[in-house]
Specification:
alpha/beta; 15 strands; five-stranded mixed sheet; 494 residues
Length: 494
């Protein structure tokens, strides 16, 4: 078979003055064949006629019309599904090697006769007109803090004209996370765009009990900054494709930056957040010119941030706990029966009573969890030691692993008095110094000596250990001082 290379060589030799016979010989061609290509003035590839015939029997002859009927009724059906159907309808007729043939046939039919496919619509934007945000799950990147997995989300903000972007770590798609993330981004930006678009509003609403309340609070947030809000349909990339794709792109960019870093472990969260700041800086480095255009037309920030917490009224139940967002938190037993105000932030909550913040507690993630501070209830537990064994939240009453080990030792040595002895030790930690007690427990465990509350107290008071480190504690309050105020609050319905 004559190749295009041979014909090109033959043509070159003719142009250089060689006779046809000699040129054909040098090009490795038959002279008669060479004359044909010389006359046509074309290469072999240009002389090939379109292949319109079958070299082998069509395996789907007589049945492809049935396939076409299925495609008309079920436009989204896949070739593999059709092939499995054909094998059931015609046992023994088709082999697995014929699947590729059917896939090509189905693909061609859909291109000619199938329904139109979703269209991606590239968007045109103008400086300062539009910003967008979304939550991106980052758990799959394998980030760890001091060796512990950090299952987190990234609140991701972008200016759609310049593609300037930033982000912040969060742990839920709650309104508090949305509010905190959006405000952080705007104050970092130093200005306000005309419109903000997100498809994550629905996710935030699902985390709240009152959809209307969320709408009111989010609308209030936008009004505070003078921003018009809009919402795309979640997952409809064809509606707003360039914005929809950005969370995936930024996640991939951070993944690549982690690869270059050589480690996905960080010493603490602040270290990880500094890395994210650097990564966004790298992404924004090539966007400075268009970003400057945006800065010139952004509107001024308001005088202050809007409070990004949710205020909840809760009554302290007889177990000295409050239930917030389907999770349980303890407060001091002095507050049992009282109504407190809980200010719920993205990562913590504050317990307020009589215009004073009494507690600042890390917010629990998820539902059905609990966080009980032993200091809140220990005064009553030492009076009721029998309640400890089956206490629902007992696992929270071991401040460190040493306390847990000591309790197990006491259960082995003196099972009848173990609960009482352990609670006395815990009471000592609450009253004096948890750190000092913890150090003493470590020494006693190491010496394999008999442990008792009296011995721990003796060692603590003998001054064998540093007493300068004191645990933070809440100043006792006299609820009688606030009786009048509380009555007034009841009058106004709070």
């Amino acid at each position: 078979m004559v190749t295009d290379k041979q014909v090109r060589r033959f043509m070159q030799l003719l142009e250089s003055g060689e006779k046809k016979g000699i040129a054909a010989m040098k090009a490795g061609m038959d002279e008669k064949t060479a004359r044909k290509y010389a006359k046509a003035g074309k290469l072999p590839k240009d002389l090939k006629s379109e292949h319109t015939w079958r070299t082998r029997k069509d395996p789907f002859e007589g049945v492809f019309s049935d396939v076409e009927e299925k495609l008309k009724i079920f436009p989204g059906i896949e070739a593999l599904t059709l092939f499995e159907w054909l094998k059931r309808e015609y046992p023994g007729r088709f082999s697995d090697g014929q699947l590729r043939t059917l896939q090509r046939r189905v693909k061609g039919w859909k291109a000619l006769y199938g329904p139109g496919k979703e269209v991606f619509f590239p968007q045109e934007h103008w400086p300062g007109e539009l910003s967008a945000s979304d939550f991106t799950h980052m758990g799959s990147l394998g980030v760890t803090i001091a060796g512990q997995p950090l299952d987190h989300l990234l609140y991701h903000f972008v200016l759609t004209y310049s593609n300037w972007e930033t982000g912040s770590v969060c742990f839920s798609e709650s309104y508090e996370s949305l509010s905190s993330g959006l405000q952080d981004a705007l104050w970092k930006l130093g200005g306000v765009p005309g419109m903000h678009r997100t498809d994550s509003l629905s996710a935030a609403v699902n985390n709240l009990n009152d959809k209307e309340e969320f709408t009111r609070r989010y609308s209030g947030l936008l009004r505070h900054y003078g921003v018009e809000g809009s919402k795309t349909q979640s997952g409809k990339g064809n509606e707003n494709g360039d914005i929809e794709q950005r969370p995936y792109r930024v996640k991939e960019a951070i993944d690549q930056a982690l690869m270059l870093r050589g480690s996905r472990d960080f010493k603490d969260r602040a270290d990880y957040e500094r890395f994210l700041e650097w990564a966004f800086g790298q992404l924004n480095a090539g966007r400075k010119e268009r970003f400057r255009e945006e800065l010139q037309v952004l509107r001024r920030l308001p005088d202050r941030r809007l409070e990004d917490c949710r205020r909840i009224q809760a009554r302290v139940n007889p177990s000295s706990t409050i239930r917030i967002q389907k999770n349980v938190y303890s407060v001091h037993s002095r507050l049992i029966g009282e109504k407190v105000e809980v200010r719920l932030y993205a990562e913590h909550l504050e317990v307020w009573y009589a215009q004073r913040c009494l507690e600042r507690i890390p917010r629990l993630r998820g539902e059905g969890k609990h966080r009980v501070n032993y200091r809140h209830i220990i005064d009553w537990l030492v009076r009721k030691p029998g309640a400890f064994a089956n206490y629902r939240y007992r696992s929270d009453l071991f401040p460190t692993s040493r306390f847990r080990i000591v309790y197990d030792i006491l259960k082995d040595d003196r099972p009848a008095k173990a609960d009482k002895e352990y609670l006395k030790i815990l009471h000592l930690a609450a009253r004096e110094n948890e750190h000092g007690v913890d150090v003493i427990l470590g020494e006693l465990i190491g010496k394999n000596e008999s442990i008792s509350s009296d011995l721990v107290e003796q060692m603590l008071y003998e001054g064998q250990h540093d007493q300068e480190i004191h645990d933070p504690h809440i100043e006792a309050i006299d609820l009688h001082d606030y009786d009048a105020l509380y009555e007034n609050l009841q009058v106004v319905g709070l």
